[in-house]
Design goal:
The protein is mainly α. The protein has twelve helices and no strands. It is extended, with a radius of gyration of 31 Å.
Amino acid sequence: MNFDAYLPAGITPEDLIVLMSALSAGSVAFAVWLALLHRDPATKRAKLIAHQRSEMRAGVVGPRRRQERLPTIGMMRKVVDRLNLLRSGQANKISLKLMRAGWRSKDAIIRYLFSRLALPFAFGGTVAFLLHGLDLYDLDTTQKLIATLASVIVGAYAPDIYIRNAAKKRREKIRKSLPDALDLMVICAEAGLSLDATLMRVSQEMEQAAPELADEFSLTGLELGFLSDRRKAMQNLALRVDLTSMRGVANTLMQAERYGTPLAQSLRVMAGESRQERVMKAEEKAARLPAVMTIPMVVFILPPLFIVLLGKAILNTIDAFKDLAF
């Protein structure tokens, strides 16, 4: 078979092989370069924090009339505005839950409300189509109805479960990194830095190790700069982070601002208490481990152990009884 007839003029099969080899080598080199490329998440996080700062400054300092005249954005905002979901009494509680989960953008509450409205219909419609339309499983009418209602309930509670889990994970990360941040605050306070500069400096140092805590501290430092009441910034910090230790830190900072108490000594005491709390949490998990391991040990470890130890004796006994029978 002559391949030259299928090639463009002036290109031989050897040239085609060389070209394909060059493309393969280039693809391999590009794949290796992507694998070895170092991606720094701190840059993206810094851009996100800077964007949140600009939005917060514009929301507090900027004119409110101009914000009220902004057009609605996207289909979700139109649906939420049409149903007046933002004017309900639960809007403030939802906004607080989203802030504790780490979402403080203006569209976060819109996405949450739209998800709570749309997911029950989406889940229920999908399950109803699979069970009634396609008849995917051999179920009777009652079982199909129960499965459809269960999918609707799952869709209704899915956003709350997701946000609760996200807030819990974020709170645990902040709790684990708080003692180190307090030690850095002690160093900054003893060096003579103000509270605003201390929070901003600690947020910069903790940006890679604990981005969640760095985000909260940088936001508090920003609020201290433009809010008229500085205690409001501390209260917002304790409200966003639902931790006993963080509330203690906020109260300590408020007392230092109000009464002029030594900030470094108070922070050193708070750092020691936070470390002690972290050790107690670890000891609590270690003490709970034997009770947690009881069921896996009984189900997965003891049966194979009994088979290994007693299996041969049982088989020999069975063979002995067979011999006696004959």
